[in-house]
Amino acid sequence: MALLILSFVVVLIVVLRYNTVLLRKYNNLKKKTEADLLASEENFRLLVSNVKDFAIYMLDINGRVISWNEGAAYVKGYSEKEIIGRHISTFYMEEDLEKGEAEENLMMAKKNGRLEKEGWRKRKDGSVFWADVVFTAVYDDQKKLKGFAKITRDITERKRLQNKLLEINQNLEELVRVKTKELTSVFERVSDGILAFDNDARVTYSNKKSGEIHKRNPADLIGKNFWTEFPLAEHTMFHEKFYKSISDQKNVHFESYAPALGIWIENHMYPSSDGLSVFFRDITEKKKSEESLRHSEEVRQLIMNSSLDAIICINKSGIITDWNQQAEKIFGWKEDEMKGKHLNETIIPQRYRKAQEREFLHFQQTEENPFINRVVELTALNSEGKEFSIEISIAPIKQHEHDFFCVFIRDISQRKVAEQGLRLSAEKYKLLFERSPVPMWLISTSDDRFVDVNEAAVNHYGYSKEEFMSLNTTKIRPEEDKKRYLSESGENKPGKNYHGIWRHQKKDHTIINVEIYANDFTHEGKQARLILANDISEKIKAEESLKYSYEEIRQLASHLQDIREEERAGIAREIHDELGQQLTVLKMDMSWMSKRLSAEPSGEINKKINSTLELLDVTIKTVRRIATDLRPSMLDDLGLIATVEWQCEEFGRRTGITTRFIEDMTEFDFPPQMAIGLFRICQESLTNIARHSSAKNAFITMQQMSGELLLTISDDGQGFDAHKIGHKKTLGLLGMRERTQMMGGKYEIVSEKGKGTTLSIRIPFHSMKINN
Questions:
Q1: Is the pTM of this model over 0.70?
Q2: Interior angle at CA 717, CA 712 and CA 719, nearest 5
Q3: Sheet holding 697-705, edge to edge
Q4: What is the mean pLDDT of residues 356-382?
């Protein structure tokens, strides 16, 4: 009986490496029996002789091998005869031996009773592998150290996959960096930090901004547990929201303060079945602004509602109390320089100050002033001592028991200059025309001859001014554009403006694209047309390049999606084939032990075994569900139609929502990428119905209509405002839209509050290979 119990414990020691749930359940039992298990060297050899996944062997107190199982021979390459009596330093790397790591490990195991670590080890043939090593001190009945039990596992492949994940993340970061650099003229750089986690809070992705906010290298966080890297006390709210979001599978938005960083952070959490993504940003400045706004919102609202340009607040004595940014821009003084000073001693020129002081005193006595609630033009003074023209209006404001004045000022110096320019319009026009950096010319609309051209046109088109004067305007048009030009340029109406894109031909026959702005007017008694021609050839090239970049990004997204699906399919197969088989074998072993322990009087062990068998049943079902969620095998075996039908049945059974699937398709094979794309759209749509719609019925139809495949998914739920949701860029809807576009199809979603939602996908048959 004792031998069977010890066998049961050894099997658990091996299997617990794969299942953390069983580890917690049997940890106490393992601690109780571990000393007894290792006390008998002969029994230990018998118990572990058939375990090949782990190297399990015993050491004496000096670190020499005294027992050796087949797993050790398999992992290390030494037979039992070759290794018995040899020191564990046989397996260590030269550099580790120089550091005395073997002796240090024995000392730590002796001191703590147990030691677990990872490192490089070598085999008999000289090859090396990355090992997960566990030392356990073994004591006799008198609590005297007798030796050590050591378990070594080859985890080289797991380490390689971890490094590969890190490499993929680094490559993705580099790709994002390159694409971001290419589009800096169009897009701003990403301002949000982004972190992605698995369900155990291990970091799977961290972008550059995330590293800047946390003051960490993003690559160093990959594969690390977030709570280990950052003290939990600093992230209590983050910790609670993290697991609540994953548990409820709902998006979470909240703000939190990080004492260690000294900043406020706005967090957006988006859970999924295999983890959670967090978008966050530093909102410290926003918080400070909100705090300031709470103290002065009412005053600022009154000021902004009356604002012209510069806003200056003064008290009843004329002392400045507020000075906005536009006032800083117009006058040149900062707010902290002006607060506490008298308005009359700052922006009012010296020669007007006495008169202004008299006006202010007169207002205090009679409440009459020419500036109150009126717009008046004055001359003001800036920080450089220069005078300029302004419009000024003063509004008295009463707020609770306090009276003050808001002075609204607009810089009209440019307007004054423009008015002066109008008085000298003929000379000014000529000056502006000649010095314009954009090609301009004046033509007679009666005969389409050039009347005048500026220097920019001469330089850009290659003709001299005299040559321009001898040309008809059709001369600068490509031959194939002349007919269109003549048909559209015949009408002349004074005051009418024209705008359009045309092609012009230079003297050297180079074709350029120009943006034309034209205005018809009367010039010296004759009908004329002033034309401004802005060369946009480079702009058009840039737009074409941008369009090409968009297409490259879409192709990249499609490629990454394909890689993800392949990885999910591979993981699903491994989970189903490897872990599923191992759990089944474990269940058979447990059943075998249960039958042979049925005669045990107390029945306690049978209860434990029956409880374990129930847990194994649940675990096997969970493994099957996870594998199916990752990639339903029937999609490859039975095709899209059967898989969607199965999915509807499973969804209805799981959620209680009545789900119907109707298909009207002739027999043909969907391309693999299209099949998985349509399946994922159905899967995401049903998930959204379960989460958000509160529907009782859901409907999926797939049919052929007018050379197209039409997929329709609808429900009778509460619906939503489709226009508003479109501006939120929700990831689920965005993902379905992208999948549809990758298949060459059209995506449409129609919803109304209280009337349900309908999603329609149309894919032309020429986008798929049909096998009739």
A1: no
A2: 85
A3: 658-664, 697-705, 708-715, 757-764, 746-751
A4: 77
